[in-house]
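Notes to self after the call with IL:
- keep both proteins in one doc
- input above output, always
- annotate only the second one for now

Protein 1:
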Amino acid sequence: MMSLVAYEDSDSETEAEKTEAPDASGRQTSQLSSPVSCVQHFAPGSTESAHEIHPAGSAGRSGWSRVCEDPPEHYARNSNTDLAPPHCQRVYSGHAAVSVAYRNYEQASSSSTNSGNGFSQKRAHNDSTPTLKGIRPYIPKRLRQENSSKPEKEESDQRGSSECDVKVTGPGEQALRKTSELIKPYLGSKYKVTEVPKSLIFYMSKHSGPVNEIQWCPVLEQSHLLLSASMDRTVKVWDAVDTGCCLKTFSCHSCAVRAARWSSCGRRILSGGFDSMLHLTDVETGKQIFSSKTEFRISALKFHPTESNVFICGGFSPEVKAWDLRTSKVLRVYKAAVQQTLDILFLPEGREFLTSTDAVSRDSADRTIVAWDFQSAAKISNQIFHERYTCPSLSLHPKESVFVAQTNGNYLALFSAQRPYRINKKKRYEGHKVEGFAVGCEFSPDGTLLVTGSSDGKVFFYNYHTSRIIRTLSAHKEACVSATFHPVLPSLLATCDWAGEIKIWQ
């Protein structure tokens, strides 16, 4: 008795693609609604004596005034405040290049690479051969691979002009192009002295995952726009001066977005994440002007200070690469005997740049901070920092030739930005906690203050010249990973935390 034998084509990529659609639609509906409706007015504030400030006690102070429908505590109870793992306090500060919390998110992101709103480059085999009573005949594996590679190549060629999944949640294009009435009086005038913020202006919590990075738009006329990158796979643009609303949400990545930067023209956003993808997205249209897949997960991005079409990216790799957006090709490769690049910092004029890495030896932090010549890709120095701590972030002083390095030893170290990049042993900014988080640090626009987040949710303000703590601000309940001053408005500060919250202070 004869029987028909059929071989079922059950490739793993075919099955994975079948499960993409419900996850993609489900994730779009998981965005949190805007938690706050605020009305604010701007007025100059005054500096107070050194003490710790709590947001609840800042309503009656001078400066910006804030009127909300409900207090922040109401939304904190109803939002995702349990994102920080309870065991992140166990991370040893001296040897943690990436926090345990980041590793948990990496595992979650890698397990869901084929889900969410990301697209799969591998397509299932489309068999056009006639079948007998619905049974598909056997097709050799080599023939299946040849057929599947054709649509994959066509898709990769079209990816450069594809459109990113954009969600408009605010006034949209008008709010992107306008110049805030609060910013206009300060345009063209010299920046005034920075004062320590005292009052909470906006409380924004639309991210469903930790916020990794925030940045004000570098174009001063559009500096009311704030960019945020999150572990929830999205990049958001906010009106953080007038309304506190999220204007646009870009969902171009299939995994956590670790880094995002404004272009110098303020019309494009460069983003990179744990899906190893690089995207340059037009802010107004959502169209991807440049898109490329790298060989490693991306953790740091920086545009060249003078060449607007050149940027450097680094991540979980011993290599750091310089890209040219005009040719969509790699210009140079910088190789170091490390496993991960934590941050990148261009020195004045862009001829040299620094990379902070996870390389820590038994006796010293050899190669923890490496100086590079941008043009020749030559390594200038790898003996800059000699203590056994990694440095998750670097920041350059706006006026003097110095930079600071955030260390996992719970202090900020000060260095010369000129060769041989010696450390200043007389100044050390201590008091905050890092504990394995990628806590950012930054100078105020006038260079008088140094601000940093802390793993206990506080923001610390240091006097740059004396290295003393001026004030601490109890900003968040979870780890505060970034704090950045507005480039135009005096004393306006944006902070973000591991629970997905963004707050604006003045």
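Protein 2 (the one to annotate):
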Amino acid sequence: MNKFIFDMWPFLDKAICKIIRSATRPIFDQYIGKYGIESIDFGDLTLGTLPPTLQGIKVYEMQEKELVIEPVIRWASIANVTVNVKVHSFKLSTQLLDLHIMLAPRVTLKPLVPSFPCFANLCVSLMEKPRVDFGFKLLGGDVMAIPILYQFVQEQISKQVAILYHWPKVIQIPILDGARGTFIGETVNSDPWVWHKWIAHATFIQGKEWWGGATKKPIGILRVKVIRAMDLPKMDLLGKSDPYVKLRLSGERLPSKKTSVKMSNLNPEWNEHFRLVVKDPETQVLELQMFDWEKVKMHDKMGMQVIPLRSLAPYESKLFTLDLLRSMNPNDQHNKKNRGKLVVELTFDPFREDNSTPAVISDGEGNVSIKRDIPAGGGVLLVSVENAEDVEGKRHTNPYAVVLFRGEKRETKVIRKARDPRWSEEFQFVVDEAPVDEKIHIQVRSRRRRLLPFHNKESLGHVNINLMDVVNNGRINEKYHLINSRNGKIHVEIKWNTV
């Protein structure tokens, strides 16, 4: 089991962190605009390279159709979680690091059924108070170094976790269809935070993030045309509003796309086009938010609306005239106020299935090559930077990868003090035509956190990859020797999907 967890941990780290981001986003959004808070987001979010380990496990013999196990779990992680809060243009960072946990849970799989994964519900509770130790930095100083505060925080965490999960209280999570899960002894709808906990746990085991979301791949492109807005409210005492629209797909960590700002206009026209990569049209929604641009203070939120992608038919353009709302809460009394309308046009273009038969070409001397018909039109280039080997810097080795394509730059997270870093990060580039005669540049760099600007960054090697084979074959999965590196290699997977 420990070997299995160790091999799976890089992927579990990425999946769990993705769930954390999606589960905490609604909580963060509740505070934006209050108390002068302009934004809250994660900086670094990684559980580290060290996985939890099982120190022992007890299995109970049961007559019922269930399996009861009690593992002892220890986790001395090098987790690094940074939350950035912007208050009145002042940026405040808090950092959680060096997390140490000891748990003694009871896990019950019941009832056992003859359908994969062979149990219908997962029930978890704690048999004793958890032991939790961590570092917490605020404004560069370790708050947990204060003895009295350290002891108080330790006790409170153990106490609150025990209240929620200590036996006989049980978290029951449905695995198979037809099973319903809830927090025993709690009312899910009574507390928003309880609801988010339920979502996080249920999604982690049952939902698309765990069984499908971590492996979901793009299946098409959503084309959005932001046409116009009408009868927008006046947000300033002097002058009219300066509106612009932000749009994003739910479940994505990518930055929101923005229209241009229309100055002093309550009936603006944009006619601007955007393309978003779709992974799950059955569950994803397009989020549209209207803001009033401000030169100095925080931009005022004018209204919002969402469009479920399941309402779209493939390849058919659909026009929407949306009534802007203050929030998506159906009980919000402020939604009765007129906030204007937004007109958008959406088109969902699924990727083509490559059913073309490749042509085999011979040069008459026994040498053959394969050539495929390259479909005209655009698509999505998916670049997965998996890992690197034997990278070494002259002054420091904190590697991260930089992907450059058509002037766009993407970066992986930084892995501190590692010669064999594993990133497993995927980047998307939406293009209008097949990149047949182009190259993609990938460079491994090292970054050091220091106040002095000297030697903070250095290159550990690079590679230029021709995209002809990617377009012809649809996919490459190779290890490349890094140029300007002694023994360094990088593992990259690139896919090309057309629409």
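Annotation: The mean pLDDT is 79. Residues 2-31 form the longest helix (30 residues).
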